[in-house]
Amino acid sequence: MSDSTQPTLDNLLSEERTFPPSAEFAARSNAHAEIYSWAASDRLSFWAEQARAMLDWSTPFTQVLDWSDAPVARWFADGRLNACENAVDRHVAAGRGDRVALLFEGEPGDTREITYADLQREVSKAANALQTLGVGTGDRVAIYLPMIPEAVVAMLACARIGAVHSVVFGGFSAEALRSRIDDAEASLVITADGGYRRGNPSALKPAVDEALAPGDEHDACRTVQHVLVVRRTGQAVDWVEGRDVWWHEAVGAASDQHTPVQVEAEHPLFILYTSGTTGKPKGIFHTTGGYLTQAAYTHLNVFDLKPETDVYWCTADIGWITGHSYVTYGPLVNGATQVIYEGTPDTPHQGRWWDIVQKYRVSILYTAPTAIRTFMKWGEQIPAGYDLSSLRVLGSVGEPINPEAWMWYRRVIGGDRAPIVDTWWQTETGAIMISPLPGITATKPGSAQAPLPGISAEVVDEMAEPVPNGSGGYLVLTEPWPSMLRGIWGDPQRFRDTYWSRFPGLYFAGDGAKKDADGDIWLLGRVDDVMNVSGHRLSTTEIESALVSHPMVAEAAVVGAADQTTGQAVVAFVILRAEFRDRIDEVGEGGDVAAELRAHVTKEIGPIAKPRTILVVPELPKTRSGKIMRRLLRDVAEHRTVGDVTTLADSSVMGQIAAGLGSS
Ligand code: PRX
Q1: Which residues contact 654 (CB under 8 A, 6 or more apart)?
Q2: What's the gap in Å between 114 CA and the centre of ligand 1?
């Protein structure tokens, strides 16, 4: 296969190159090959051992797994601990207070170096401030912040007092923020005046004000008592007296002494909303002991972290699960030193990331294939201008990485030296599930390969039977794991229906996968109506609902079409209401109608959900039972010959669509 070949199923599966770790890397590896047989021989005692090795427990647990209420797991249930204490205080208590925890690089170039001792003082002050504002154990706190140290501090401060954080990505709209605040019934919102984005201050507080504006149809304005505002950009903000409080005043005035609240292992740590196949995002919730155990264990072994010497950088925003497990919790529980960068990769120039790697001597880099493909597009002369020799492990997450991008990452960024770990997992799994171990596995470009020790995954057919090597099917997880979701906030039935009903007794991940001749797993993307755009999960239905909420739109169908850079791109097919059909001449790409609808989706959900292409069509292809046949629309969006149309209620529809597209 040539490196320039686009990934297709065939060349993806004919990949035969392997890259074993160097002898030197293997000799110093945290994990050794026996870890697989150890975990396989007694999975529960393996996890119990990890929970003891990774964490400090104020009350040691005696039970490992209680699966009697399946599919709701209870891990280490009679133990007690505090997540923040594990991430911060115990490093200080062990004499590591001077170690740098966070190396913050703001987009404008401002920097901050925060040691574990500094972090302990900051989170203690913030925890005191939250309690003064009336936040108690079990209360929900929405966090809507840019990637600044306060984001991590805010999460940890919640954990310190046993409050449940719900981080909402700063790129989401006021509407999306409001529905998440409503669903979790949050009593406090932590935000900032703004953050820096593409060289300019970008406001955040107005979205919070809008989300909390009084209205009949939502509760956000009723449940939220206070808004705590970090001053980041200094831009002007509207102020609601009695509700809004400056972070620097409340946290600044608080004592730096605070005793962490010990909670049960199954106490909820956070809720994180993610897109499902229906319009309403799901509040995935995770608890404390099992989640932290697996976040820390995977972080230590998958990245082969040496906390004393490594400088780790995960480029994810805390608004996503990767930012929870591999910025806030995993690395800090392991006592790592990590970089946090606020801004975009091309500000002020396309070498910004590599400048950061060079400046901080980053040794472990964890990012998404979309970013890698973007850098490929910009050209390898850009990273070539920087000293990247400090890098020794590279990670990939969020979407399938095509072998071409994998090889480029290895050669151009990793100097043909650093192993690549392609890590498969989900918001729901809480931590990495399928991945090579860099000191053990001979890696294969494009494959996540094997479940980690302690994890049981399979590829099964429609009948839930494991497929033989060389065949494809559905990815399932066959045994409970410590960091698994404990449910969907407020909707236990949806939890069972979504994940456990397709293959009874098995967790169905929603992904298609193949096993190659060696039994290694290749992820092939979602098999449901979930899209993956730049490694971000979007629901087709959610975007369709946003589109039809616009007065011009009668019907909408959204598909994810293959895209060279973003993996998939949002393509929307819309039927205009009759009274707007006279605007049809404004429809084409760049026309006013498309621009108006894009702006509308941005307002309803956020810029990440904005369709790349909007096609106005006279009809949508539907089955006789009225189900939209997205498969056919995907054919159109990907410029393929349209597939079998015999199940359509009206087989002339695809012809009309094609004719309509020709004219627009
Ligand atoms: O389709 C899989 C894809 O991302 C989905 C999970 O999305 P989310 O919950 O937002 O979490 C992303 C970060 C963990 C999965 O169902 N996915 C994630 N990692 C990979 C992947 N697909 C292929 N290879 C991966 N390494």
Answers
A1: 621, 632, 636, 642, 645, 648
A2: 31
- Give the C-alpha separation, 165 to 187, whole Å: 11
Residue 583 has pLDDT above 80, yes or no: no
Alpha helices, DSSP H, located in 28-173? 34-41, 43-54, 83-84, 90-91, 116-132, 149-161
- Name the token pair of 662: 């020709």
Q: Which positions ≥6 away from 27 have C-beta within 8 Å? A: none
Residue 522 tokens, joined: 């290749």
Residue 304: phi, psi to the nearest 5?
A: 50, 45
pLDDT at position 376, please? 95
In this prediction, residue 276 carries a pLDDT of 77
Rounded Cα distance between 330 and 562, Å, is 33
Residues with Cβ within 8 Å of 23's Cβ and at least 6 positions away in sequence, in order, are: none
Question: Is the full-model pTM beyond 0.85?
Answer: yes
Residues at CB less than 6 angstroms from ligand 1: 274, 321-322, 397-400, 422-427, 448, 509-511, 523, 526, 532, 537
Chain mean pLDDT for the chain = 93
Q: Does the bond joining 383 to the residue before it have cis omega, within 30 degrees of 0?
A: no
The label of the residue with tokens 């906390």 reads 307
187 vs 220: CA distance, rounded Å: 9
Q: Report the residue among 271, 406, 523, 538 best suited for mutation to probe ligand 1: largest number of ligand atoms under 8 A from its CB.
A: 523
Q: Tell which one of 314, 406, 532 to mutate to probe ligand 1, the residue whose CB is within 8 A of the most ligand atoms.
A: 532
Structure tokens at 159: 């954990």
Kindly give the number of the ligand 1 atom that is closest to the alpha carbon of 448. 26
CA distance 600 to 574: 13
Tell me: the pLDDT tens digits for 458-495? 999 999 999 999 999 999 999 999 999 999 999 999 99
Best residue for ligand 1 mutational test, from 167, 327, 397 (most atoms within 8 Å of Cβ)? 397
| Interval between CA 399 and ligand 1 midpoint (Å) | 5
Give per-residue pLDDT as tens, 520-579.
Answer: 999 998 888 888 998 888 988 889 989 989 999 988 999 999 999 999 999 999 999 888
The pLDDT assigned to 2 comes to 33
**Mean pLDDT value across residues 63-86:** 98
Distance CA 648, CA 624 (A): 6
- 400 C-alpha to ligand 1 centroid (Å): 8
